[in-house]
Write a sequence for this structure.
């Protein structure tokens, strides 16, 4: 297998995956709308192994997939709060868009399709150590649309079209499209900037975690594994489970200065899931390699050296709002082919 198409290639995980695929000897077609700017893939601008395509996944045609051996489908309006801004748009992209990607890839002769799903589909878990066979209970629009895409795409798998879903834990770590709306990243930033961490949602809720490089590693593992092993399969991808308040203490303990922790008396966070990652270990021999402590130190050092963006693009929900508000304003002043 030599040529891979990645949707959402300019995103938080996508930028890491493109780099790892190139380093692994693959040719890559990197597809993205580039809501966060083309600079996220600037390192590949002159790389003849990478074809950068600015396109909405809903507009992809069979021609776009011709000659590719695999598709890694990461494109979506990411995270729970962002999905609530425009639920209709979230379903159009996260569900309908990814169903379109899978069907179009299949029709064009692609052999392997991998969808980036999420452990958020478990929602408010009814037990500890939820496995791939456990009951799902998606709460947010993001989780519901993701679950529906995952299930419908698994249903079109056959002997000639292998489909695998990776239910990723909450991700942490550095990226060219940095996100500071993810729990470990955000806590590290606020500790760095304010010497303080405010724990929202009560702090007792569970979250599974995984480093960004390990998520990318999981995609490469599926690409390199025979279809007979991974076709029609779900895999929970993560390192371990942590209560939110304990993550705050981990961040505090890995800072070289005092950090105050405050438990906010707000509404209890309904998203609470503790995940079993044993299947990926048994079947794929997949073991995440980066600890939370290593991720915290990695982010702190990048902040200390000024090597990571902390601007408005790093908070997904706020950036999406900016884009939608700008679109609305332009539509209001657009007149006969002219904006100005």
């Amino acid at each position: 297998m030599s040529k891979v198409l990645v949707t959402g290639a300019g995103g938080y995980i996508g930028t890491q995956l493109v780099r790892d695929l190139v380093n692994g000897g693959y040719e890559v077609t990197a597809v993205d709308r580039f809501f966060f700017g083309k600079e996220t893939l600037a390192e590949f601008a002159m790389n003849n192994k990478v074809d950068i395509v600015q396109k909405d996944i809903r507009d992809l045609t069979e021609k776009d997939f011709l000659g590719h051996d695999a598709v890694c489908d990461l494109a979506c309006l990411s995270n729970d709060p962002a999905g609530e801004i425009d639920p209709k748009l979230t379903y159009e992209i996260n569900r309908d868009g990814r169903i379109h990607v899978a069907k179009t890839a299949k029709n064009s002769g692609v052999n392997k399709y991998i969808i980036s799903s999420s452990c958020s589909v478990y929602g408010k878990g009814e037990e500890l150590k939820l496995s791939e066979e456990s009951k799902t209970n998606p709460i947010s629009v993001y989780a519901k649309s993701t679950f529906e895409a995952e299930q419908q795409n698994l249903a079109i798998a056959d002997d000639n079209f292998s489909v695998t879903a990776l239910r990723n834990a909450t991700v942490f770590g550095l990226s060219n499209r940095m996100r500071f709306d993810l729990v470990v990243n955000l806590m590290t930033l606020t500790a760095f900037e304010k010497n303080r961490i405010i724990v929202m949602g009560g702090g007792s809720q569970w979250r599974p975690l995984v480093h960004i490089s390990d998520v990318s590693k999981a995609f490469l593992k599926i690409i390199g594994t025979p279809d007979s092993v991974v076709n029609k399969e779900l895999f929970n991808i993560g390192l371990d489970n942590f209560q939110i308040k304990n993550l705050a203490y981990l961040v505090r303990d890995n800072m070289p200065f005092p950090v105050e922790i405050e438990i906010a008396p707000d509404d209890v966070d309904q998203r609470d899931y503790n995940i079993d990652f044993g299947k990926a270990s048994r079947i794929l021999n997949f073991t995440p390699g980066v600890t939370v402590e290593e991720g915290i130190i990695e982010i702190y050092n990048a902040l200390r050296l000024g090597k990571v963006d902390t601007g408005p693009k790093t908070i997904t929900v706020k950036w999406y709002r900016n884009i939608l508000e700008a679109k609305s304003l332009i539509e209001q002043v657009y007149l006969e082919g002219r904006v100005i």
